[in-house]
Design goal:
Elements: H1 4-18, H2 29-36, E1 40-47, E2 50-60, E3 64-67, H3 69-72, E4 77-81, E5 87-96, E6 101-105, E7 127-132, E8 140-149, E9 155-157, E10 169-171, E11 177-184, E12 191-195, H4 206-228, H5 232-245, H6 250-262, H7 266-279, H8 285-295, H9 299-313, H10 319-334, H11 338-354, H12 358-373
Helix pairs in contact: 4-5, 4-6, 5-6, 6-7, 7-8, 8-9, 9-10, 10-11, 11-12
Length: 374
Protein backbone atom coordinates (compact mmCIF):
# COMPACT_ATOMS: atom_id res chain seq x y z
CA UNK A 1 0.00 0.00 0.00
CA UNK A 2 1.40 3.38 -0.99
CA UNK A 3 1.67 5.98 1.78
CA UNK A 4 -1.25 8.35 1.90
CA UNK A 5 1.15 11.27 1.70
CA UNK A 6 2.27 10.16 -1.78
CA UNK A 7 -1.37 9.80 -2.78
CA UNK A 8 -2.17 13.36 -1.68
CA UNK A 9 0.97 14.73 -3.33
CA UNK A 10 0.04 13.07 -6.62
CA UNK A 11 -3.46 14.50 -6.47
CA UNK A 12 -2.13 17.93 -5.66
CA UNK A 13 0.24 17.78 -8.67
CA UNK A 14 -2.63 16.75 -10.91
CA UNK A 15 -4.78 19.58 -9.58
CA UNK A 16 -2.12 22.17 -10.31
CA UNK A 17 -1.36 20.71 -13.74
CA UNK A 18 -4.98 20.79 -14.85
CA UNK A 19 -5.67 24.15 -13.24
CA UNK A 20 -8.57 22.79 -11.22
CA UNK A 21 -10.04 24.69 -8.31
CA UNK A 22 -13.23 24.88 -6.29
CA UNK A 23 -16.55 23.86 -7.86
CA UNK A 24 -15.03 22.56 -11.08
CA UNK A 25 -17.68 19.84 -11.20
CA UNK A 26 -20.25 21.30 -8.79
CA UNK A 27 -23.09 18.85 -8.19
CA UNK A 28 -26.63 19.45 -7.11
CA UNK A 29 -27.26 18.11 -3.57
CA UNK A 30 -29.29 15.09 -4.72
CA UNK A 31 -26.61 13.95 -7.16
CA UNK A 32 -23.84 14.60 -4.66
CA UNK A 33 -25.60 12.46 -2.06
CA UNK A 34 -26.34 9.69 -4.54
CA UNK A 35 -22.67 9.48 -5.50
CA UNK A 36 -21.23 9.81 -2.02
CA UNK A 37 -23.42 8.18 0.62
CA UNK A 38 -22.53 4.58 -0.27
CA UNK A 39 -18.96 5.28 0.85
CA UNK A 40 -20.00 6.47 4.32
CA UNK A 41 -19.83 3.92 7.15
CA UNK A 42 -21.17 3.67 10.68
CA UNK A 43 -18.59 2.84 13.35
CA UNK A 44 -19.18 1.26 16.77
CA UNK A 45 -16.32 0.97 19.26
CA UNK A 46 -16.45 -0.85 22.62
CA UNK A 47 -16.72 1.50 25.57
CA UNK A 48 -16.89 -0.62 28.69
CA UNK A 49 -20.16 -2.54 28.49
CA UNK A 50 -21.63 -0.18 25.90
CA UNK A 51 -20.54 1.33 22.59
CA UNK A 52 -19.33 4.62 21.26
CA UNK A 53 -20.84 5.42 17.86
CA UNK A 54 -19.57 7.55 15.04
CA UNK A 55 -19.01 7.74 11.31
CA UNK A 56 -16.24 7.07 8.83
CA UNK A 57 -15.75 6.93 5.08
CA UNK A 58 -14.05 4.59 2.64
CA UNK A 59 -10.83 5.93 1.16
CA UNK A 60 -9.81 2.81 -0.74
CA UNK A 61 -11.92 0.19 -2.59
CA UNK A 62 -9.88 -2.44 -0.72
CA UNK A 63 -11.41 -1.49 2.62
CA UNK A 64 -9.49 1.41 4.16
CA UNK A 65 -11.76 3.65 6.24
CA UNK A 66 -10.82 7.03 7.68
CA UNK A 67 -12.49 8.19 10.90
CA UNK A 68 -11.76 10.20 14.04
CA UNK A 69 -9.40 8.99 16.72
CA UNK A 70 -11.94 9.85 19.42
CA UNK A 71 -14.44 7.49 17.75
CA UNK A 72 -12.17 4.42 17.98
CA UNK A 73 -10.20 5.43 21.08
CA UNK A 74 -7.59 2.84 22.04
CA UNK A 75 -9.56 -0.11 20.68
CA UNK A 76 -7.67 -2.43 18.38
CA UNK A 77 -10.90 -3.62 16.72
CA UNK A 78 -14.24 -1.97 16.01
CA UNK A 79 -17.47 -2.79 14.20
CA UNK A 80 -18.03 -1.24 10.77
CA UNK A 81 -21.43 -1.16 9.05
CA UNK A 82 -21.52 -0.22 5.37
CA UNK A 83 -24.34 1.28 3.31
CA UNK A 84 -25.43 -2.17 2.05
CA UNK A 85 -25.95 -3.21 5.72
CA UNK A 86 -22.97 -5.57 5.67
CA UNK A 87 -21.08 -5.61 8.96
CA UNK A 88 -17.33 -6.11 9.35
CA UNK A 89 -14.89 -6.30 12.20
CA UNK A 90 -12.39 -3.57 11.44
CA UNK A 91 -8.82 -3.40 12.71
CA UNK A 92 -7.46 0.02 13.66
CA UNK A 93 -4.13 0.03 11.81
CA UNK A 94 -3.12 3.64 12.44
CA UNK A 95 -4.15 6.44 14.79
CA UNK A 96 -2.98 9.90 15.75
CA UNK A 97 -4.52 11.58 18.82
CA UNK A 98 -2.92 14.92 17.92
CA UNK A 99 -4.71 15.17 14.57
CA UNK A 100 -7.73 13.21 15.92
CA UNK A 101 -7.65 10.78 12.99
CA UNK A 102 -7.58 6.99 12.72
CA UNK A 103 -7.47 4.47 9.90
CA UNK A 104 -9.44 1.22 9.92
CA UNK A 105 -8.88 -1.80 7.70
CA UNK A 106 -11.69 -4.22 6.85
CA UNK A 107 -11.52 -7.26 4.58
CA UNK A 108 -14.35 -6.82 2.02
CA UNK A 109 -15.31 -9.57 -0.40
CA UNK A 110 -15.60 -7.08 -3.25
CA UNK A 111 -14.38 -3.65 -4.32
CA UNK A 112 -16.06 -0.89 -2.33
CA UNK A 113 -17.21 2.59 -3.35
CA UNK A 114 -14.81 5.23 -2.06
CA UNK A 115 -14.51 8.99 -1.79
CA UNK A 116 -11.80 11.16 -3.32
CA UNK A 117 -10.12 14.06 -1.57
CA UNK A 118 -9.92 17.72 -2.56
CA UNK A 119 -6.33 18.91 -2.20
CA UNK A 120 -7.14 22.59 -2.84
CA UNK A 121 -7.70 24.18 0.59
CA UNK A 122 -11.31 25.29 1.22
CA UNK A 123 -12.24 28.95 1.26
CA UNK A 124 -14.53 30.83 3.63
CA UNK A 125 -18.05 31.06 2.27
CA UNK A 126 -17.94 28.00 0.02
CA UNK A 127 -20.75 25.45 0.15
CA UNK A 128 -20.11 22.25 2.11
CA UNK A 129 -22.04 19.05 2.89
CA UNK A 130 -21.75 16.58 5.74
CA UNK A 131 -22.86 12.94 5.58
CA UNK A 132 -22.88 10.88 8.76
CA UNK A 133 -24.90 9.12 11.42
CA UNK A 134 -26.31 11.72 13.85
CA UNK A 135 -28.18 10.01 16.70
CA UNK A 136 -28.17 6.75 14.73
CA UNK A 137 -29.87 8.20 11.63
CA UNK A 138 -27.46 6.64 9.19
CA UNK A 139 -25.97 8.57 6.27
CA UNK A 140 -27.93 11.76 6.90
CA UNK A 141 -27.11 14.74 4.68
CA UNK A 142 -26.80 18.34 5.89
CA UNK A 143 -25.44 21.44 4.21
CA UNK A 144 -23.88 24.76 5.11
CA UNK A 145 -20.86 26.91 4.40
CA UNK A 146 -17.28 27.21 5.59
CA UNK A 147 -17.43 29.99 8.16
CA UNK A 148 -13.82 30.11 9.37
CA UNK A 149 -10.42 28.47 8.90
CA UNK A 150 -7.85 28.87 11.66
CA UNK A 151 -4.07 28.97 11.35
CA UNK A 152 -3.81 25.17 11.74
CA UNK A 153 -6.29 24.68 8.91
CA UNK A 154 -9.12 23.57 11.24
CA UNK A 155 -12.37 24.13 9.34
CA UNK A 156 -15.35 25.75 11.04
CA UNK A 157 -18.60 25.19 9.14
CA UNK A 158 -22.36 25.68 9.56
CA UNK A 159 -23.81 22.38 8.27
CA UNK A 160 -25.84 20.92 11.18
CA UNK A 161 -24.00 17.96 12.70
CA UNK A 162 -23.94 16.19 16.04
CA UNK A 163 -21.77 13.68 17.86
CA UNK A 164 -22.74 10.73 15.64
CA UNK A 165 -21.28 12.61 12.66
CA UNK A 166 -17.78 12.46 14.17
CA UNK A 167 -15.37 10.83 11.74
CA UNK A 168 -17.64 11.41 8.76
CA UNK A 169 -16.71 13.36 5.64
CA UNK A 170 -17.14 17.09 5.06
CA UNK A 171 -17.56 17.44 1.30
CA UNK A 172 -17.19 20.32 -1.11
CA UNK A 173 -19.61 21.09 -3.96
CA UNK A 174 -17.90 18.46 -6.13
CA UNK A 175 -18.42 15.66 -3.62
CA UNK A 176 -14.76 15.58 -2.64
CA UNK A 177 -13.62 15.34 0.96
CA UNK A 178 -12.17 18.54 2.40
CA UNK A 179 -12.30 17.52 6.06
CA UNK A 180 -13.20 14.98 8.71
CA UNK A 181 -15.94 16.01 11.15
CA UNK A 182 -14.34 16.44 14.56
CA UNK A 183 -16.54 18.20 17.10
CA UNK A 184 -19.86 19.97 17.36
CA UNK A 185 -21.64 22.22 19.81
CA UNK A 186 -25.36 21.26 19.78
CA UNK A 187 -27.72 24.19 19.34
CA UNK A 188 -25.07 26.35 17.71
CA UNK A 189 -23.41 26.71 14.33
CA UNK A 190 -20.03 25.92 15.88
CA UNK A 191 -18.96 22.77 14.09
CA UNK A 192 -15.38 21.83 13.26
CA UNK A 193 -13.59 19.47 10.86
CA UNK A 194 -9.97 18.35 10.60
CA UNK A 195 -8.55 19.32 7.18
CA UNK A 196 -8.14 16.27 4.94
CA UNK A 197 -4.43 17.01 4.47
CA UNK A 198 -3.95 15.91 8.10
CA UNK A 199 -4.41 12.27 7.03
CA UNK A 200 -0.72 12.43 6.08
CA UNK A 201 0.00 12.15 9.81
CA UNK A 202 -1.16 8.52 9.61
CA UNK A 203 1.10 7.33 6.79
CA UNK A 204 4.18 6.62 8.90
CA UNK A 205 2.31 4.26 11.21
CA UNK A 206 0.67 1.87 8.76
CA UNK A 207 3.40 -0.56 7.72
CA UNK A 208 3.89 -2.73 10.80
CA UNK A 209 0.23 -2.69 11.83
CA UNK A 210 -0.99 -3.65 8.37
CA UNK A 211 1.56 -6.45 8.16
CA UNK A 212 0.52 -7.82 11.56
CA UNK A 213 -3.12 -7.61 10.53
CA UNK A 214 -2.45 -9.67 7.42
CA UNK A 215 -0.42 -12.26 9.34
CA UNK A 216 -3.04 -12.72 12.06
CA UNK A 217 -5.78 -12.96 9.42
CA UNK A 218 -3.82 -15.76 7.74
CA UNK A 219 -4.25 -17.90 10.85
CA UNK A 220 -7.97 -17.09 10.98
CA UNK A 221 -8.61 -17.88 7.31
CA UNK A 222 -6.49 -21.05 7.30
CA UNK A 223 -8.23 -22.33 10.42
CA UNK A 224 -11.69 -21.61 9.05
CA UNK A 225 -10.86 -23.46 5.82
CA UNK A 226 -9.82 -26.51 7.84
CA UNK A 227 -13.07 -26.38 9.83
CA UNK A 228 -15.15 -26.16 6.66
CA UNK A 229 -13.45 -29.34 5.49
CA UNK A 230 -14.17 -31.03 8.84
CA UNK A 231 -10.50 -31.06 9.90
CA UNK A 232 -11.06 -29.72 13.40
CA UNK A 233 -7.77 -30.95 14.84
CA UNK A 234 -5.86 -29.16 12.08
CA UNK A 235 -7.94 -26.04 12.69
CA UNK A 236 -7.21 -26.26 16.41
CA UNK A 237 -3.48 -26.47 15.72
CA UNK A 238 -3.63 -23.37 13.51
CA UNK A 239 -5.63 -21.37 16.05
CA UNK A 240 -3.22 -22.47 18.81
CA UNK A 241 -0.27 -21.22 16.74
CA UNK A 242 -2.03 -17.94 16.03
CA UNK A 243 -2.84 -17.34 19.69
CA UNK A 244 0.75 -18.05 20.71
CA UNK A 245 1.83 -15.30 18.34
CA UNK A 246 -1.12 -12.96 18.94
CA UNK A 247 -2.25 -13.71 22.53
CA UNK A 248 -4.93 -10.97 22.57
CA UNK A 249 -6.60 -11.72 19.24
CA UNK A 250 -10.38 -11.79 19.85
CA UNK A 251 -11.35 -13.69 16.70
CA UNK A 252 -8.71 -16.40 17.13
CA UNK A 253 -10.08 -17.20 20.59
CA UNK A 254 -13.65 -17.22 19.34
CA UNK A 255 -12.85 -19.54 16.43
CA UNK A 256 -10.71 -21.82 18.59
CA UNK A 257 -13.71 -22.14 20.87
CA UNK A 258 -15.80 -23.28 17.91
CA UNK A 259 -13.17 -25.87 16.97
CA UNK A 260 -13.06 -27.15 20.55
CA UNK A 261 -16.83 -27.45 20.60
CA UNK A 262 -16.77 -29.68 17.53
CA UNK A 263 -14.08 -31.75 19.26
CA UNK A 264 -16.38 -31.99 22.32
CA UNK A 265 -14.02 -30.07 24.57
CA UNK A 266 -16.94 -28.10 25.94
CA UNK A 267 -15.20 -26.56 28.94
CA UNK A 268 -12.27 -25.53 26.77
CA UNK A 269 -14.70 -23.96 24.30
CA UNK A 270 -16.46 -22.01 27.05
CA UNK A 271 -13.09 -20.82 28.36
CA UNK A 272 -12.12 -19.52 24.89
CA UNK A 273 -15.47 -17.80 24.34
CA UNK A 274 -15.14 -16.20 27.76
CA UNK A 275 -11.61 -15.00 26.98
CA UNK A 276 -12.81 -13.48 23.71
CA UNK A 277 -15.51 -11.59 25.61
CA UNK A 278 -13.00 -10.39 28.21
CA UNK A 279 -10.81 -8.99 25.45
CA UNK A 280 -13.69 -7.32 23.62
CA UNK A 281 -17.06 -6.74 25.34
CA UNK A 282 -18.88 -6.74 21.99
CA UNK A 283 -17.35 -10.05 20.92
CA UNK A 284 -19.47 -12.39 18.74
CA UNK A 285 -18.49 -15.08 21.24
CA UNK A 286 -21.60 -14.22 23.28
CA UNK A 287 -23.68 -15.97 20.64
CA UNK A 288 -21.34 -18.97 20.47
CA UNK A 289 -21.22 -19.35 24.24
CA UNK A 290 -25.00 -19.04 24.47
CA UNK A 291 -25.49 -21.76 21.85
CA UNK A 292 -23.16 -24.08 23.76
CA UNK A 293 -24.99 -23.43 27.05
CA UNK A 294 -28.25 -24.18 25.22
CA UNK A 295 -26.86 -27.47 23.88
CA UNK A 296 -25.60 -28.39 27.37
CA UNK A 297 -29.10 -27.76 28.76
CA UNK A 298 -28.11 -24.73 30.81
CA UNK A 299 -31.05 -22.47 29.87
CA UNK A 300 -30.44 -19.64 32.35
CA UNK A 301 -26.86 -19.16 31.18
CA UNK A 302 -27.97 -19.43 27.57
CA UNK A 303 -30.69 -16.83 28.18
CA UNK A 304 -28.18 -14.39 29.66
CA UNK A 305 -25.71 -14.80 26.79
CA UNK A 306 -28.35 -14.57 24.06
CA UNK A 307 -29.53 -11.33 25.66
CA UNK A 308 -25.98 -9.97 25.47
CA UNK A 309 -25.61 -11.16 21.87
CA UNK A 310 -28.82 -9.30 20.98
CA UNK A 311 -27.56 -6.17 22.72
CA UNK A 312 -24.27 -6.36 20.81
CA UNK A 313 -25.98 -6.75 17.43
CA UNK A 314 -29.07 -4.56 18.00
CA UNK A 315 -27.83 -1.61 15.95
CA UNK A 316 -25.99 -3.63 13.31
CA UNK A 317 -28.46 -6.19 12.06
CA UNK A 318 -26.19 -8.95 10.82
CA UNK A 319 -27.48 -12.52 10.59
CA UNK A 320 -26.57 -13.24 14.22
CA UNK A 321 -29.26 -10.87 15.48
CA UNK A 322 -32.08 -12.88 13.94
CA UNK A 323 -30.61 -16.18 15.12
CA UNK A 324 -30.07 -14.83 18.64
CA UNK A 325 -33.70 -13.67 18.87
CA UNK A 326 -34.96 -17.01 17.52
CA UNK A 327 -32.78 -19.08 19.86
CA UNK A 328 -33.63 -16.95 22.86
CA UNK A 329 -37.27 -17.50 22.02
CA UNK A 330 -36.69 -21.23 22.19
CA UNK A 331 -35.03 -20.89 25.59
CA UNK A 332 -37.86 -18.67 26.87
CA UNK A 333 -40.37 -21.28 25.75
CA UNK A 334 -38.35 -24.01 27.46
CA UNK A 335 -38.43 -21.97 30.70
CA UNK A 336 -42.20 -21.55 30.37
CA UNK A 337 -42.23 -17.82 29.61
CA UNK A 338 -44.48 -18.04 26.57
CA UNK A 339 -45.12 -14.29 26.38
CA UNK A 340 -41.41 -13.52 26.14
CA UNK A 341 -40.91 -16.40 23.70
CA UNK A 342 -43.62 -15.12 21.35
CA UNK A 343 -42.12 -11.63 21.50
CA UNK A 344 -38.71 -12.98 20.52
CA UNK A 345 -40.10 -15.08 17.67
CA UNK A 346 -42.04 -12.07 16.35
CA UNK A 347 -38.90 -9.95 16.34
CA UNK A 348 -36.96 -12.76 14.68
CA UNK A 349 -39.67 -13.14 12.02
CA UNK A 350 -39.63 -9.39 11.34
CA UNK A 351 -35.85 -9.45 11.01
CA UNK A 352 -35.76 -12.46 8.67
CA UNK A 353 -38.52 -10.91 6.57
CA UNK A 354 -36.49 -7.70 6.22
CA UNK A 355 -33.45 -9.59 4.94
CA UNK A 356 -35.70 -11.79 2.75
CA UNK A 357 -34.75 -15.07 4.39
CA UNK A 358 -38.03 -16.84 3.69
CA UNK A 359 -37.09 -20.16 5.28
CA UNK A 360 -36.07 -18.65 8.62
CA UNK A 361 -39.08 -16.33 8.55
CA UNK A 362 -41.39 -19.34 8.27
CA UNK A 363 -39.53 -21.12 11.06
CA UNK A 364 -40.19 -18.20 13.40
CA UNK A 365 -43.87 -18.01 12.40
CA UNK A 366 -44.23 -21.77 12.95
CA UNK A 367 -42.84 -21.39 16.46
CA UNK A 368 -45.43 -18.72 17.26
CA UNK A 369 -48.20 -20.94 15.89
CA UNK A 370 -46.96 -23.88 17.93
CA UNK A 371 -46.92 -21.92 21.18
CA UNK A 372 -50.33 -20.25 20.69
CA UNK A 373 -51.98 -23.58 19.77
CA UNK A 374 -50.92 -25.26 23.01
Amino acid sequence: MKPLSKFVTALNTLTITLGLSHSTFALDPATLYQRSNAAVAAIAAPDGKSFGYGSGFITSPKGLILTSYHVVGNNSQVWVKLADNSVYRGVVISRNPQSDLALIQIQPKKQLPSLTVQTVPPRIGQKVYAIGNPKGFERSLSDGIVSRIDQRGLIQYTAPTTSGNSGGPLLDEDGRVIGVVRSTFPGTALNFAVPIAAMNTLSRQQGTAAQQLQQSQNYVVAGLLQMRQGNYQNALALFNAGIRRYPNHVILYSNRGVAKRYLRDYQGAIADFTRSIQLQPNSPAYFNRASLHKALKQPQRALSDYTEAIRVNQNWGDRTLGDALYNRGQVQAQLGDTKAAISDFKQAAKFFNQIRNTERYRDAIDQITLITSQ
